[in-house]
Amino acid sequence: MIRIRRMLPLTVAVTMLTLTACGGGGDSGPSNPAESLRPTARSAAAGVDNVAGATASPECTAKVKTLRMAAVGTLNDVAKSGKAYMEKAHPGLTVDLNTSAPDYTALVQQISADRSAGRSVDVAVAGFDLLPVFARELGAQELSPRLLRASYDQRLLGLGTVGGKLIGIPQQVSSLALVYNLDVLTKAGVDPATLSTTDGVIAAADKISASGQDVQPIDLPTGQQFGQWILNTLASSKGTPIQDAAGRPALTTPAAREAAAFLAKVGTYGPHSADPTQQGLLRFGIRKQTAMTAVTVASLAGGLKFIAGQGAKGFRAGAIPFPTLPGGSQHPVAGGNALSVLATDRCQQEMATELIVSLLSPDVVAASTEALSYIPVDTQAASQLGSFYDTYPQLKPFLALTGSLVKAPVWSGARGGELPTALSDQVVRILKGEDPAKTLAAAQAEAVELTR
């Protein structure tokens, strides 16, 4: 059976946006991939809900001999799992994988170039914020939730919609986490339970500063668009994300101003990392220069494993969902990706759908979660991960976020794609001491201009 190797050490993780899964083989489980990864069968044409996931019709399985899938490099092993199942279940079928793209933007460019060269793509992986591009420019097909297993957690499907249509099936879902050095907090007299709100974080930072320990209380990285993600997650906790229901920028709401005030205070504790992995995790997990930092859930388990593996050189590490504003509640902004069907031929679509179902099988989702600690999208997979969550109990609170995750903003306009980076730059200005209200006003003006 094709397995996804479990978590990589932090020394590897800090070179990437998230930890990558490396290919590996396991000696546990059945050797027949059609047994280990099989989506329970029913016809893709059947118009009824069923416990089983969709498979293509006999007509289409006989007709289709090649499927092409495009994904980013970090999903190489997940894609290989689907390839193994499909080629075993349908002798004579070849699944061509292209996982050379380093990120989702490069993947869109690659798919477009392949199309221009006459090479079609049947299945692709889309970052959530790029789903409108897949729908508008790449012809992603509308999908039906009824083709999925009953165990797929359909509370997540809203993350894959564009204009009310399901364009992508969420595959890997993440959110922001606050990780902390429990040894530092304990010496400063800080109860981790108080970190659930920004007021609690500030109070903890003040205690750490006064405790005489040579450590920066908190580091909030801003690179890789973390700045705007943090700002949006904070504002969303008060029910008003930085994009309103009509898709317009909403950067001067009371919640956004409150979030900016928190960031301004955080900026007084010391310099903040530009990169969440090469700097943020390095400062926190290896150099022990910071007591708290923000990470994506996908990098969390690997970091925890590395820290625990240092023995006496390590420390006790904890993690919680990113704090809310006082009086707010957890409505974190989701990160991650979705599987989309680009094929236009009916039989290619049926086979592409079966490939997607195989990629969402509980075994694959569970193995992927152990490799990259995303929030599992399948309830059966989650139930298989008991020992994993016993090993990393810090991850358990993130399971409760599934029903409250909020879509990341997708900005309109020819230059809308520039806005996440532009907003992160504005967060950097706030952290460096510029007036938060004036900076938000400037951010709003810039956002309006970029989204015209």
In short:
With 452 residues, the protein is an alpha+beta fold.
What class would the helix/strand composition place it in?
alpha+beta
Overall strand count: 12
Mean pLDDT: 87
Structural Rg = 22 Å
**Beta-sheet strand percentage?**
5-15%
The helix content is: 25-40%
Largest sheet composition: 5 strands, mixed
Q: Which regions are unreliable across 5 or more consecutive residues at pLDDT < 50?
A: 1-51
What is the distance, rounded to the nearest whole angstrom, between the alpha carbons of the first and last residues? 50 Å
Rough shape? Answer: globular
Strand order of the largest sheet: 4-3-5-12-8
Q: What is the oligomeric state here?
A: single chain
| Structure annotation, total helices | 19
Give an overview of the whole structure.
The structure is a single chain. This protein has helices at residues 10-13, 33-36, 58-63, 76-89, 104-116, 131-136, 182-187, 198-210, 226-236, 254-266, 276-286, 300-308, 346-359, 362-371, 379-384, 386-391, 396-399, 419-431, 436-450, and strands at residues 2-4, 23-25, 66-72, 94-101, 123-127, 161-162, 165-166, 169-174, 176-181, 292-296, 317-321, 335-341. The protein is 39% helix and 13% strand. α4 crosses α13, α9 crosses α18 (419-431) and α18 packs antiparallel against α19. The strands form four sheets. Strands 4-3-5-12-8 form a five-stranded mixed β-sheet. It has a three-stranded antiparallel β-sheet with strand order 10-9-11, sandwiched between helices. α4 (76-89) links the parallel β3 and β4 (94-101). The chain contains 19 helices and twelve strands. It has 452 residues and is of the alpha+beta class. The protein is globular.
